[in-house]
Amino acid sequence: MAELRLSDDGLYYWDGSRWISTLSPDGRWKWNGSAWVPVTGMVAPGFAPYSSYQQPATPRVPTPWTKPMQYAVAAWYALSGLYALSLPFWMSGTMSQIINQSIQRSTAQNPEVSPPPAEVISSMTTMMSGVLWLAAIFGVAISVVIIIGALNRWTWMFYVVLVLLGLGSISLPFNIIGAVAGSTALNPYSLPSWVSWLSVALGIPSTALFIWMLVAVIRYGPWAMSRKVESPAPAWPAPAS
Fold first, then answer.
1. What is the pTM of this model?
2. Quick one: the chain helix, strand, coil %, rounded to 5?
3. Which end of the chain, C or N, has fewer beta carbons within 10 A?
4. 36 DSSP 8-state letter
5. Which residues pair with 61 in a beta bridge?
6. Beta bridge partners of residue 14, listed in sequence order
7. Which string of b and e fits 135-145 if b means at least 16 CB within 10 Å?
8. pLDDT in tens, 79-109
9. Which of 211, 233, 63, 84 has its CA nearest to residue 144?
10. What is the dihedral of CA 143, 149, 153, 155, to 10 degrees?
11. Residues 187, 178: contact at Cβ < 8 Å?
């Protein structure tokens, strides 16, 4: 028998007129000239899995509500940041009054117990002032982030603002009742009436902004931006010649 002439890679042999593959159709066997031997050390060609077509997301476009809503949210939280920054200046005296009222009430209910020393009361007042300053700084930081998010139309920020305003809207009826009723269970420490009415005055525009944003997200989407719908251009008939 004539010696089998193989190609350099061993995948073909010459039959005298043409090159013929030495591999079986399934690629698992190889012809060595006298017998089929199993193929070892060869990796079957890989095929990239078919990826289903992903329809591109439809972009959102601004509506006439978008810019006014952005500016309204930014302005509201700019005002909220200033309000938070002012709290330590005018709430310190109110917090001292609340602490003194608590001590007086405890002393009246337990006359056999001596009231705390003045140093303890002073330490509690100082601590409450520090808490107010921390709350003010935290409130200003949140307001700045919300303003940036509103001006940049961050989608997640829209929903954060919607939740915050919604929670504030829930407390509005209780603030109104507390302002009208004065010293009640809702206002056990007899806070100045102007504090309660200030909460009401701030709660009304906050609730109005919440309702507007809720209507906008239902009608259009976040930041009142609707999805752009591409409609095919009408096919006009060719002019008659």
1. 0.61
2. 55, 10, 35
3. C
4. E
5. 226
6. 5, 19
7. ebeebbebbee
8. 999 988 988 887 776 777 777 777 777 777 7
9. 84
10. -100
11. yes
